[in-house]
């Protein structure tokens, strides 16, 4: 008496593994691209929320200084209001140093201008940096040097 054996042949298993490998080769880069875009959008949302807080500060004090108080001397650093969103899971957000935003804050008009940056915190391989200014113009830079920046989509007012 012969019992029929059940199971898969080696050829069937190899074909299945090959199909799964092809699907993975297609899906993994797409998934990586999607997650990078999602992280960037999360950072953009945090920057925009901080920008709206800056607008509220401007409406209250008619400038972008902390509590409406300008620097005490010409050489002192500009104190900005505390921002709610200082980090996301993948980006750290802070005010850019004077002149870091295409020289915008270096012209002495710090009361009416500001620039915030979202810099990757190193958890992923992300190198791009987001920058937002008082006009809600969002720039996407390929790295932290801000030499290779282009305008990114800005939120509607």
Please explain how this structure is put together.
- The chain has 157 residues and is an alpha+beta fold.
- It has one domain (10-152): Glycoprotein, Type 4 Pilin (2-Layer Sandwich), CATH 3.30.700.
- Helix content is 33%, strand content 15%.
- A five-stranded antiparallel beta sheet has the order 1-2-3-4-5, with helices on one face.
- Strand 3 and strand 4 (138-141) form a beta hairpin.
- The longest helix has 52 residues, at 10-61.
Question: What features would you highlight for this structure?
Answer:
single chain, 157 residues, alpha+beta, Glycoprotein, Type 4 Pilin, five-stranded antiparallel sheet, 1 helix, 33% helix
Describe what is shown at a glance.
It is built from one helix and five strands; from the N terminus they run H-E-E-E-E-E. The protein has 157 residues and is of the alpha+beta class.
Layout of secondary structure:
Elements: H1 10-61, E1 91-95, E2 115-120, E3 129-133, E4 138-141, E5 149-152
Antiparallel strand pairs: 1-2, 2-3, 3-4, 4-5
